[in-house]
Amino acid sequence: MKKKLALLLGALVAAITLTACGTDPKEADYNGKTYQELETEMNQYVSVIGMLHSSVASFVEQNNMKPEDFDYSQMTSEETIESYKSYGVNEQELAAVESWDNIVAQYGELDRTDAESFTINKAGNTTTTDISLYFKNEDGVEKEVIFEIVYKSWNMEVTGVTIEPYKSLTEKMTKAGLNTVISMSVVFVVLIVISLIISAFNIFPYLEKRKKEKAQQVSAAPAVETVATTEVVEETDDLELVAVIAAAIAASEGCSTSDFVVRSINRR
């Protein structure tokens, strides 16, 4: 009985899977919208954003401005959004003008739309529609760009528009690999810095120890005895001094040293 039940469930799952895989996206219902309606809406978005781009380009030219000097924030201001509502232009279309202009600056103006590339994808609570646009520069070089509209699946409300250059699987893998290398490098650098900071903490106890040892060496040094230097003043023998003075007086007076007596000497 259990085996039969398991086989029955397996067959049911397989049938559901095959049914889902075999559903024609053009015949599917997208929460009240058909494939054709979403395709028409996509073409309208491309057309409206292209016209908004032309309006911005004309404004820049008339005011002798450089394209990079144009303030795109005014495109999504409340005043601009309200004024464009009467023309059927929504906020998402206004916000996408800057991306469109950036694409034009890099790859040239829109040349054609590949209607056959239109696809619808549903993942969880998000549904997206995509189409390939081809922009061409003055040299005739063509670049594929993916135009995507993002919806909330439960009410099919548009939440955003993205316009990005097409990237091959190789380019995506290269970019992903580069991002991985950069991320890992940043992590390693941060770890090295943290390691150096932690190692630096070991220096402080060493410096403190050296300071204490130096202080101990200074306190243990023997006291230097101050030896008072006594100046030895050689005193001249008074008798010799008297004899010299007496001889000088005798020579000066032309007499003998016995003719007079030196009683005192005044030192100055």
UniProtKB/TrEMBL annotation:
GO terms for molecular function: sodium ion transmembrane transporter activity. Its main location: membrane. The chain crosses the membrane at residues 181-204. Residues 1-22 form the signal peptide. PROSITE patterns: PROKAR_LIPOPROTEIN. GO terms for biological process: sodium ion export across plasma membrane. InterPro entries: Na_pump_deCOase. Coiled coil: none annotated. The lineage of its organism: Bacteria, Bacillati, Bacillota, Clostridia, Lachnospirales. The keyword Hydrolase does not apply. One of its GO terms (cellular component) is plasma membrane. This is Sodium pump decarboxylase subunit gamma. It comes from Agathobacter ruminis. It is found in: Cell membrane. Keywords: Cell membrane, Membrane, Signal, Transmembrane, Transmembrane helix.
